[in-house]
Input
Amino acid sequence: MQIVTEPSEARQALASLPRPLGFVPTMGALHEGHLALLRQARRRDTSVAASIFVNPMQFGQGEDFERYPRAVEGDRRHCEAAGVDVLFVPSPKAMYPADFSTSVDAGALGDAYEGAIRPEHFRGVATIVVKLLHVIGPDALYLGQKDAQQTAVLRRVVRDLNFPIAVEIVETVREADGLALSSRNAYLNERERAAAPTLHRALVALRDALQEGAPKEAAIARAHQTLDPSAKADYFDVVDALTFTPIDPLRPEAFVIGAARFGTTRLIDNLWIRT
Ligand code: PAF
Output
């Protein structure tokens, strides 16, 4: 595995790799969810590139940019074991020169739900992913289902900006008790960790209620009742998987979505309804 830190170095390293090339962008602190993305890329594509970059532009004021877990040495070993050919680990300066001023606006798709709570978050995500796609030039982009709205935003960006890239969404990996794997789970204390799987249970309750024919409001109320009382829900809803607009009743190609705070840690999760 070749590790590169400059865009020019990355292009050079990637130029000689056989195609198709799969790409997995990450912010590091890799867990089984990321490894599932890397393994799927390894199975489907001839060559695999990954990136590790904690992107300051997608964190708002007072968010966890400074304390976001960083584990470069372990990440490097995981990437090597997963068969990554080229690992791009740029410095903030390499991605954002001092007078950087161009950004990618994700449009209305990025304004609701996570975008309403984290204004500018999806501008940061769309901008860095477009920059990474320009550097890496992959044939396929692998994204985790866990960040459902991010998948919708990035599918739209890839389509709107004519990137000749297939976007592959890889299913969420969960702990045995249902908690979706996330780098932010590391922030949870024992009590919060015990309560956190109720977010998944709330989404299951919401989905089941809708599938049983309950009105959406009643189904959402059931989700709130299922969430641990110590948690604070930000939202529960059902949205179209591509447009991320609310739908009622439930139909295929939908996400049942939810976000809640356990202490100071905000977790998001979803169920993907496909059939
Ligand atoms: O999902 C993430 O880890 C990040 O949002 C991404 C896609 C790597 C962009 O920084």
Residues 25-27, 55, 58, 125, 128-129, 147, 150 surround pantoate (CB under 6 Å). The chain has a mean pLDDT of 97.
